[in-house]
Amino acid sequence: MSTYEDRLKALREQLKADRLDGFVVPLTDEHMSEYVGSYAQRLAWLTGFKGSAGSAVVLPEEAAIFVDGRYTLQVRAQVDGANWSYQSVPETSVAEWLKAHAPDGGRIGYDPWLHTKTWVKQAREALAERGAELVAVGHNPIDKIWADKPAPSRARLVVQGDDLAGRSSASKRQELADWLKEQRADAAVLAALDSIAWTFNVRGKDVEHTPVALAFALVDADGTADLFVAGEKIGDDVRQHLGNGVRLHERDAFEPFLKSLSGKTIVVDPERSVAAIFEALEGAGAKVIAKRDPTVLPKAIKNPVEIAGQKSAQARDGAALVRFLHWVSVEAPKGNVDELSAEAKLEEFRQATGQLKDLSFTTISGAGPNGAIVHYRSTPETNRKLELNSIYLVDSGGQYADGTTDVTRTVAIGTPSAEHRDRFTRVLKGHIAVARAVFPEGTRGCQLDSFARQYLWAAGLDYAHGTGHGVGSFLSVHEGPQRISPAGSSQAGGDEPLKAGMILSNEPGYYKTGAYGIRIENLVLVVPREAEGAEKRLLGFETLTFAPIDRNLIETAMLTAEERAWVDDYHARVMEIVAPQLDGEVLEWLAAQCAPL
Fold it and tell me: Running DSSP on this structure, what letter comes out for residue 338?
């Protein structure tokens, strides 16, 4: 099965053998993760789609792939339109499409370990309108035909010490126990990998770019816990760190354990836990309370140690990025730099810090028209040179033991056009509007999203992604529950009230299909603010990311005095934080880049 067409044909044959008329293939794992281990990359194996969000449906005569606006261009480049129809979310959904396309009376299969209970309910109701049935499979049909499917990672867990975590695992578990008593519950299921990593102060290497380990957990109302993880992944150091309050089990003992909880009251997060968990508990006679994972909010609100670590990581990462931007300014005009060589050079500068654990996601290195693909990933087939009189977008980040970084810069190679400068400056004005925002406590991210878009909207322009996402502490680069995104968008979370201690990205952009892309991204920390005569408690943002914004792309005349002052103040802070780590040519270049407008 060397071609994707062969794989699609093999799946259809397997479905026929399994007496199924269709199958749903999501891009996730048993933990509803955004990024998944190689063993769970079923969608990519079947279709060729390499994005980080999507799903597919295969029927006997047709097949469809579903992505949101971030992947509109990418899916067409990677997935053969002769075999797959492209479906746009949220304009449609898997359930809606099945209602229109499933065979009358058909049996559509799904893996209950890869879908939420809510999704199952919606799909079942949609199919019922067609007289069709949603059928849980005991063995995923893709796994039956994927002969060389990778095994799950065997990497060992590592301890995230209190000096980095800022709190002990025992204190976190006690806080969860107190919450469980308020809910009159016996235990809470933790299925999200970053929730488990945060709660137990451990990290892992089981998912590319996200330092988590494949595990499940239950935390009890007495503060003890059961952790389900492959025994080969636990060393003596981790065993000692976890202590007597954590009972260890093999990962495959999780489902049988759930089935032993008859008569217990268990909290399960319907968004972060798969349908199979609910089915096991309900089938055993446990009482299930559907509530958000109780670690989500405390994990999002960083403690002083985590904030200090994040600032340290950002300063280190900023210096690596400045070295890279200087290198681009020297080498790209010579015509010797392409997307892949630039990507490799940036990782080299981060590795040179001596503290890089991993990238925080696959670098988006987009030259010219490739920069217009929001979640672009350069390959030997798509690799482009950074050409003169074009613009280059690079979105990247690092995982360090003390923090997770995510930063985008757009730079001019040679002389930018008047349109480049106009669009870039509109994006910059939106970025500044978010960075300078002051808002009352209780404000949600969706209320701030239009701050970033207003200058693009005024020219009839927009962008098809959220303005900001939460970021973890040496954890997921995309962390909930907070976001800055339009109300009702497919990127949920924009209705979460922002709280001091949360970290988000500030990343408005603009993308002209077939021409270029622009994005300016810094991470920001929610902090208390004061205003004379204020009648409410106020919040605002402290910028955490420090690297120059390309002055060659700024149309200064379009900026107000306050906006010019913000840029000058920001660049003064870049000099203060990053310059002491540099010398020679790089330092001279940075000083010129950070001179007042």
Answer: B
Model pTM score: 0.94
Reported in sequence order, the residue ranges of 414-544 that DSSP labels E, i.e. its strands, are 438-440, 468-470, 479-484, 503-506, 509-512, 516-519, 522-529, 538-543
Domain ranges in the chain are 4-145, 158-299, 359-574
Radius of gyration (C-alpha) of the chain in whole angstroms: 24
The position carrying tokens 């409410």 is 536
**Ramachandran bin of 285, using left for φ above 0, alpha for ψ from -120 to 50, beta for the remaining angles:** left
The region, left, alpha or beta by phi > 0 then psi within -120 to 50, assigned to residue 533 is left
244 exposure class (CB count in 10 Å sphere: 0-12, 13-18, 19+): exposed
Q: Domain 359-574: state its class.
A: alpha beta
Q: How far apart are CA 66 and CA 52, in angstroms?
A: 12
Q: Which of 396, 410, 309, 401 is nearest to 360 (CA)?
A: 396
- Write a three-state SS string for 57-95: EECCCCEEEEECHHHHHHHHHHCCCCCCEEEECCCCCHH
pLDDT by residue for the chain (597 residues), tens digit each? 789 999 999 999 999 999 999 999 999 999 999 889 999 999 999 999 998 899 999 999 999 999 988 888 889 989 999 999 999 998 999 999 999 999 999 999 999 999 999 999 999 999 999 999 999 999 999 999 999 999 999 999 999 999 999 999 999 999 999 999 999 999 999 999 999 999 999 999 999 899 999 999 999 999 999 999 999 999 999 999 999 999 999 999 999 999 999 999 999 999 999 999 999 999 999 999 999 999 999 999 999 999 999 999 999 999 999 999 999 999 999 999 999 999 999 999 999 999 999 999 999 999 999 999 988 989 998 999 999 999 999 999 999 999 999 999 999 999 999 999 999 999 999 999 999 999 999 999 999 999 999 999 999 999 999 999 999 999 999 998 999 999 765 455 568 999 999 999 999 999 999 999 999 999 999 999 999 999 999 999 999 999 999 999 999 999 999 999 999 999 999 999 999 999 999 999 999 999 999
Residue 194: what are its φ and ψ, rounded to 5°?
-75, -30
Q: What is the DSSP string of 343-384?
A: HHHHHHHHHTTS-EEEESS--EEEEGGGGGSTT----TTT--
Record: fold of 4-145: Creatine Amidinohydrolase; Chain A, domain 1 (3.40.350)
* Nearest CA among 222, 249, 218, 244 for reference residue 233: 249
Cis peptide before 90, with omega less than 30 degrees from 0?
yes
Considering only the top CATH level, what class is 158-299? Answer: alpha beta
Sequence-separated (6 or more) residues with CB below 8 Å from residue 589: 326, 329
Alpha helices in 496-539 (DSSP H): none
Same CATH fold assignment for domains 4-145 and 158-299: yes
Q: Tell me how many helices (H) and strands (E) the chain has.
A: 19, 28
